[in-house]
């Protein structure tokens, strides 16, 4: 099952960081928030990710393009530019990065991912919030109720994304 990561917002609540990088790329413990969220899903066996990029999306794309070098020790030949990764095998993830537009709202981002979702059941999460959610139990709950969507929220509500 695919997991969609919404990564297009301006990150106005973290303006001191997000004037230079998108909010999902703000580091916690030496790695971007989005990577922490991916690790949560990976823990539950979900490793096929689609990132809906927007604001400063090119930085997210560059990070994943260069992931093996960023996350590992390596040797580079200055003579021919060849590189040898020395340690830390990367996670077994598939990460699709899609430019969904800078000003596109959440529903529009999902609509623009239609070609990659193929009308399959999928999960959607924000790229900037790490939580302790039992993804397996959440999916079981969703399937047992036969509804179109299931939403997980936190207390207290935030300024943006408030559920009523």
Automatic annotation (TrEMBL):
Occurrences of domain Nucleotidyl transferase (ranges): 2-161
GO terms for MF: glucose-1-phosphate cytidylyltransferase activity
Lineage: unclassified sequences, metagenomes, ecological metagenomes
Protein name: Nucleotidyl transferase domain-containing protein
InterPro entries from the UniProt entry: G1P_cyt_trans-like, NTP_transferase_dom, Nucleotide-diphossugar_trans
PANTHER family named among the record's database cross-references: GLUCOSE-1-PHOSPHATE CYTIDYLYLTRANSFERASE, GLUCOSE-1-PHOSPHATE CYTIDYLYLTRANSFERASE-RELATED
């Amino acid at each position: 099952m695919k997991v969609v990561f919404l990564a297009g917002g301006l990150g106005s609540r973290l303006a001191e960081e997000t004037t230079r990088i998108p909010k999902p790329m703000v580091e916690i413990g030496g790695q971007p928030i989005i990577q922490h969220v991916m690790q949560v899903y990976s823990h539950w066996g979900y490793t096929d990710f689609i990132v809906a990029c927007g604001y400063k999306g090119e930085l997210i794309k560059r990070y994943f393009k260069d992931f093996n070098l960023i996350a590992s020790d390596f040797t580079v030949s200055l003579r021919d530019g060849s590189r040898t990764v020395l340690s830390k095998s990367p996670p077994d993830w598939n990460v699709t990065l899609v430019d969904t537009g800078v000003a596109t709202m959440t529903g529009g981002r999902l609509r623009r991912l239609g070609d990659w979702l193929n009308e399959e059941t999928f999960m959607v999460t924000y790229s900037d919030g790490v939580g302790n959610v039992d993804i397996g139990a959440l999916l079981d709950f969703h399937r047992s109720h036969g509804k179109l969507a299931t939403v997980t929220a936190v207390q207290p509500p935030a300024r943006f994304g408030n559920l009523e």
